[in-house]
Amino acid sequence: MIAMKPVSKTGIVIRYNFVKLEHEYHYCPVCGGALNAGPDYYPDFCEKCGQALDFSGTEWKEDRQIGFVEPEAV
Ligand SMILES: [Zn+2]
Hints:
The protein is mostly beta strands. Helix content is 0%, strand content 34%.
């Protein structure tokens, strides 16, 4: 089986309920399943479809703070 590069997409996550972070997600190129991957750990295979994954050359981006969630009016 030939290892394929994962697909990277940037999304926004809310942390601590008010901090907005830009977070990079990695997806399986075959089934689109989300991969639990980071610079310290990344899977060699997709846990959903078993596709071999090649994370070599992946540039790990740190979460970047992009602002705060506006407090809701009470
Ligand atoms: Zn997959």
